[in-house]
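#random but structural
TW: two for the price of one
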Amino acid sequence: MKTILVVGKLNETVKDLNAYLSKWYKVQVSSESAQVFGGMMKVVHPDLVLVSLIGMGDVQRDIFNVMEMQYPDIPVVTIGTEGERRNFLRFFENSQFENLIRPIDNADVEKAIAKRLELDPVTRGGHDEDNRPSILVVDDNAATLRSIKTMLDDEFDVTLATSGMKAMTMIGKRRPDLILLDYEMPVCDGKQTLEMIRSEEDIADIPVVFLTGVNDRQHIQAVLALKPSGYMLKPAVRETLVAAIKKALA
């Protein structure tokens, strides 16, 4: 299995990318500190370095100097906006470095990595291509997201979103086979998120299973009135959750 060292601020983008890439690669994460990065390189010995330019400013110059001078044979892939890319190219522009422009889907990032590592696209990272049904889990509680991902990872390709608006952005980049949607969320709750999904013709038919932590008759009736593909009470039980997902997908 190939090893990827992901470098950058530990934000939701990096966490999501880490979770996605871990299906095919051994992933290690380093902060943007050049000293920490240098130590990680000696310990991890990665096959490729992936750098998130988000909020790094000029800090990355030290990291790229280390790569260019000490590890010229290890490919480096960066992810940033067009502006961040232009700033990067002022200092580093050779075949060791490849720049990907945000916004970009995690699947496209993985394809770029596989290409740089000269991996067969069917067996990237030494694993068969993931043909499992894709599930998008939407919940504002990080602990709930981690718990559900652990429950489902064996049977499904799971991605996570912490709000309804982030879910809409992710759906626009990659259409999931099913959405697990928290009914009680701040700002944009499950009802509003479902309404946005159904207002878009090309995604309106995606099955949506609600997750709710409130178990009273009036609340459940309000959930069912939206005609979801299913609903589950939290905390979810794995066997019941998997059964509900398979039923909705069928």
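TW: number two ↓
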Amino acid sequence: MFNVSRVRAFWLCAICVTCIALPVPAADIPEDVMSSLAMPDRIETRIGTFEFFDGMPTEESAKRAFDYLDFQRGVDIFLDEMRAASMVALRNGHRELGATRSNQVIIAEDLFRSESLWLTPNTETVYASAFLDLKADGATVIETPPNILGILDDMWMRYVGDMGNAGPDKGQGGKFLLLPPGYEGETPDGYHVFQSRTYGVWCIVRGFLVEGDPGPAVESIKAKLRIYPLARVDDPPAMEFINFSGRYHNTIHANDFHFFEEVNSLIQEEPDDVISPEARGRLALIGIDKGQPFAPDERMRGILDEAAWVGATIARSISFASRDEIVYFYPDDDRTWFSSFAIGNHEFMSADGWLNLDARVSFMYNAIAITPAMAVAMPGIGSAYAAAVRDADGNYLDGSKTYRLTLPANPPAKDFWSIVLYDPQTRSTLQTDNPYPSLNSERGGVEQNADGSTDIYFGPEPPAGREKNWIQTVPGRGFWLILRLYGPLEPWFEKTWRPGKIEPVEY
């Protein structure tokens, strides 16, 4: 168990210096200039005392400085490279299920159940997922079924391309050709062509329920999804589908020292130029360098373990207690609803052209799969997301209590809406007596009020007469939720329709 007292709060703040015994300035240097350049013989800071001989640190001071530098680099790497560690963990989860080749696809035939650990999955679409190996297979063909949402991301969770309803095939099904880094071969006609910066590529497909039944989507995916090397276009290997509904496997990256081992495994197998020289250099300076064993000594291992926990602390603070107004949908009078994609693009760039690192952390720590369709307003296409972790009084949601959320009449979803509950520790679906901790309008049964609005209840026990509109929670545990609109319509983007606050209720 992680001991919070080990976290060094000092690192979050600017160093506060008490200067002692400034040296006497040379005759030809103004005193005010010298005071801004010279190092005192001793300074007291938030990270300890530093001592110097005429600006040169003592052995103990240099050691403390290097400990802090290694720690700081470890925290920065955790925040910046969690996207890579997340992809490694996701691929490892596939391998736990026996999916080790591109033609082996894991599929949730009975929808996603809470026995599996994924970052914020939904429980109302049929997942089919595979990892491609362009180093082993070369250029790879993907044939897709109609009426799906499909995404291709590289191993740094960077967008490669869309397939299906938001892709160039417009949901009709098509043939896609994925090219590896540095590909110099011919590109045949008849394909939608994408280029990846990494050899590993994640392919995720979502099929839709038909009158609440996942069967037709499962059948369509199994019949029409094909993945094979271009070199074997005349003799493609048979597809293998592995049902993972209800099967435990973990796809979530570590929050301790093992995080750095996950990142190292990717550095060893991908091209040198897959990330910037600056990012590579920062990794190399803590011992993660391509072609070299990652074997930190006891000192460095301890520093990196602590750095990972502090990085996770920061990621959770950014995610669940954001100080950035841009993430909130309605900052004027309601900070209940927020989104990592509120910045408006899948690359997390500000309107002024700078990378919003906090927005990227918020997404990467809690979600997987990057596509413009999740961030850009595309009425009637894709999906929209709004998350909530607090009640109307600003308190974290508590599974011991009962709450009511009102959705006004006519939710702006062309297809359907859903609400899924998540565990704040794992960021995967909340584990309760029901393996589907959710409600949605697609599967029916949810009752509306006379005015067309819908009251949804969260709590350990259902309020009398409200069983159909209730999602179970766990006493003594927190929870958070995501409202999804599939095929979101203009009232969502124009904010003329907005969900209510999450109100505590007493019975």
